[in-house]
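Lab manual, section 2.4: Encoding a predicted structure.

Procedure: take the sequence of the chain (150 residues), apply the prediction step described in section 2.3, and record the output as structure tokens. A sample record is shown.
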Amino acid sequence: MLKEKSIVYTSGTFDVFHSNHVKMIEYARGLGDILIVGVSTDELVCSYKSPPTIPFEERIEIVKALKLPDIVIPQHSLDHTIIVKNLNIDAFVVGDDWAGKYDYLLNLGIKVFYFPYGKGVSSTKIKKNILEKYSTLKTKVDNHSNPDIV
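Recorded output:
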């Protein structure tokens, strides 16, 4: 009898793609035989936080270009009940900034893993850093352009 392959699902916005995105996807890849990655649509992201910087079509193409996922799909909902049932998911991986949010999947027999990167780099932190650097630079340029400002 053939061993059934285990299927792992991970998902995210994957906006301003960075090393922690890769680490989480690598972690998920190591948990099973088949890796499916869901990329949150712009509409979904806007339902719980500010719009992504990179449009959905570009974010999903970036994730598809990785060698780690076997399948990349759009994610339209934060409720993963239908996805895990329809795709026969065995394990679910998400960043620890969502800790506890997906424990309901345990009742469906799904192993849930919260990948520990919430305190590391994030798209939000990168965007904030860019804004701060831009604001500082703009202030310096504006002050230099106006000799009356001391």
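Check your result against the sample. Residues 7-118 form a domain with the Rossmann fold fold (CATH 3.40.50.620).
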